[in-house]
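Q&A log
Question type: sequence-to-structure
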Amino acid sequence: MAVCKFIKKGEVKNMKLTLKKMIASILCISMIPSMMTGCKNESTSYSHTDFAMGTVTNITLYGTSDDLEQTEQKIIDMEKKLEKQQLSWRLKSSQVSKINQKLEQNNGKTKVTGNLKNWLQQAIKISQDSYADGRNTVDPTIGALTKLWDFESSSPKVPDANKIKKAISGDLSENSQHVTVKDNGEILACDKNTKIDLGAYGKGIGTDEAIKMIKKDKAITGAMVALGGSIVVYGEKSDGSDWNVGIQDPNGKDGEVLGGIKVKSGTSISTSGDYEKTFTDKKTGKRYFHILDSKTGYSVKTDIRSCTIICNSGLNADGLSTACFSLGVKKSQKLLKEYNAKAVFVDKNNKVYVSDGVEFTLTAKDYKILNL
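Response status: OK
Response body:
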């Protein structure tokens, strides 16, 4: 068995895949794939690690094609194009960046086209459905706050308190309640300074788009696509064995597994945790992580260490893992039911809560399983 691990963007220097400190919010456990020779109908496999969408990627393909390597490269090229042309708020060439500019220029009005319209509508819906206790952690319209922190930079630091206060002023925690994306693509924001950031959904969107590509290639019989902590599996392995996805032990060293989940074709898995994209302030010694509370402007306070979501949509899994991480076990149940999703929670008391129907095997010591 092999373990695929993921690292921070800031730790990839000169675009070389030198794996230093693993964040591994979720680990893909799979058979070590190798290229096999033979006739065209003989099953082959190909696996490759790369870098796209601000994270390390791992794609494994199974099939009867001699061109699996080229197919994998096409998927990676698509992911990079997706970030550059649509999702990134950092790149001026992206549609999200242009939307942010237009909202400010046109007093909170602009238009969105193509798939981005649907993604933004769904992200706003998840945000609104998960709003609780006057706060929100998956709001795609709080880019003004996430930009201040920029956890993906090579040297993140605590922003100036006054800047944080300004960013959360004007009911920022309820911002997605005041943004409308119409079916014709028109965006209406009550605040012209609204900034879109799909960071809580981007990797899930990327896995969804990858599977769309893979399904069009009839020579591919199975695939696993991992973009950081977002994973999707499709079809079957060449040996017919189950897909197994391992969850990072939030209290363990990088790469140590809490346990594994057996999943079927078409399943999307995403994990959010307080051990990802984190840094410690040198002055105060306080640790911060990337899941921000739009009410306070700082890392969200929760009893959960990690939350893994299992469902049939990468976008939903990505957004729900962050939302449920913040809400906690009890308050997440209504949201999970609404989106037909299941979860594995790990709290600060080393209790592991597993939804009914999830085939989870605990392997780490000092934990106790409780059914949801």
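Response note: The chain is about 25% helix and 25% strand.
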